[in-house]
Amino acid sequence: MSQKIRGVKGTRDVLPIDTYVKDDDPWVRVGHYDLVEQSARDLFPLYGYREARTPILERTELFVRGIGEVTDIVGKEMYTFDDHGDSLTLRPENTASLVRAYVEHNVNQQEPETKWWYLGPMFRRERQQRGRYRQFTQIGVEAFGSPGPRIDAEQIELLDRWLRRLGLAFEMHLNTLGDAACRPKYRQALQSHLRSRSQELCEDCQGRIETNPIRVLDCKNPKCQEVAAGAPRMEEFLCDACKAHFAGVQEALQRLGVRFVIDPKLVRGLDYYTRTTYEAIATSGLGAQSTLAGGGRYDGLVRDLGGPDVPGIGFAAGVERMALLLAQQGKERATQPLVFIAPLGEAEAARADQLAQELRAAGLSAEVSFRKANPGNQLKRADALGARFALVLGDQELKAGRAKLKELRTGAQHEVSLQGIAGEVARLLGTPR
Ligand code: ATP
Ligand code: MG
């Protein structure tokens, strides 16, 4: 036998069956992902967000400029390679890509306000652990062109409703990072605090003092957290415009009935965020990697990437973490066949194929057995597939043109006519057609 080839570390197969993933306790199947994705597809358009698809491959420069050189992502996590003289990168997040597309297609000249959402794989070379992979899936939204606080609140309410619909337990955290007018002063004050206690910080954070001091605030190291607890707060440094914006977001959230907690330590790892930042944090089930979604305003990014001075705000949610929680709750999107048909002989097999065809043509899912097995084993197979009904087709049934449709959950038997099978099944489901 030849040697097996294994998947790449930090990536995973998501299959319709149970698969073993080190670090994940429940098995995550495609049905769990599907539930997350379908609920976004259903919900986001109700808020005016339309789907946008951009390439996985982008020029490296986009992320270096868009995310910032001193961030963990650009500093050490990107999958970058040379493509005959061009440096390309597998996207580590999608905001920079959507902004590139927005600028490249002059979208602001066609519409003053734009709302896009996306879904897809992202790539970061991080240490693999529960809820952290090297290829992972994000679903996110971006709203361009709206500077006021009402859009911030609307977007946070969308995230809140989505996670609630999925039955996930979380807390919405809210903070403000100030803007170009007030953040530099805060940064200086923070830096001098951190410099005075640099000996107590982890190695990464010692480096961050000069490059990205705000990031020290959300370091997971307990010692860094202690230093962060005594640090000056952004709140005290906010300019009047940022203060008013932050108050406006909170008022709008209260009007919409969204619960949130103010979290002065909440910062985002990426350079481009200004003013409003928020995170939905799971309250149980995920351990250390508990942030389900992170979002915020990035008013300078479109301009930094060569576009007009257009504000933006968005969030990105981690689908793997959400799927893991749904798996823990045993919730997934069903893909089981409605009817399992088991023919016992050759002539029956030919008829079974037609019956399945009729059901499918009527929009009802059907699966036919292609294996020879006795009725008992066929029913077991139907059960394992999670089918709702099983139909065993023997010589007698074929002659009579009638058969018993067995409801597997209850054991109830319904006699149906094979002629017009789709109508019979629809009638049993209580959906007249
Ligand atoms: P964290 O602090 O959890 O590393 P982050 O600030 O790096 O998050 P963002 O870039 O804001 O995360 O991404 C938004 C969401 O995407 C995260 O809250 C998380 O749910 C998910 N996410 C980020 N990185 C990964 C990863 N490597 N594997 C799985 N999910 C991820
Ligand atoms: Mg990260």
The total count of helices amounts to 16
Q: Mind describing the biggest β-sheet?
A: 8 strands, mixed
Estimate the strand proportion.
15-25%
Proportion of helical residues = 25-40%
Tell the overall outline: elongated
Average of the residue pLDDT scores: 93
Structural category? alpha+beta
Instruction: Using the CA coordinates, give the radius of gyration.
Output: 27 Å
Low-confidence residue ranges: none
Question: What's the β-strand tally?
Answer: 16
**Ligands (ions, cofactors included):** adenosine-5'-triphosphate, magnesium ion
Q: Write out the strand line-up for the largest beta sheet, numbering strands in chain order.
A: 1-5-6-11-10-9-7-8
Please provide a written account of the structure.
By secondary structure, the chain is an alpha+beta fold. It has helices at residues 30-43, 60-67, 72-77, 95-104, 107-110, 149-165, 183-196, 203-211, 222-229, 240-255, 301-304, 319-328, 346-361, 375-385, 395-400, 421-429, and strands at residues 50-51, 57-59, 80-83, 86-90, 114-123, 135-144, 170-176, 261-262, 274-282, 291-297, 312-318, 339-343, 366-368, 389-393, 402-407, 413-417. Strands 1-5-6-11-10-9-7-8 form an eight-stranded mixed β-sheet. Bound molecules: adenosine-5'-triphosphate and magnesium ion. Adenosine-5'-triphosphate (ATP) binds next to strand 6, strand 10, strand 11 and helix 12. Adenosine-5'-triphosphate binds next to strand 6, strand 10, strand 11 and helix 12.
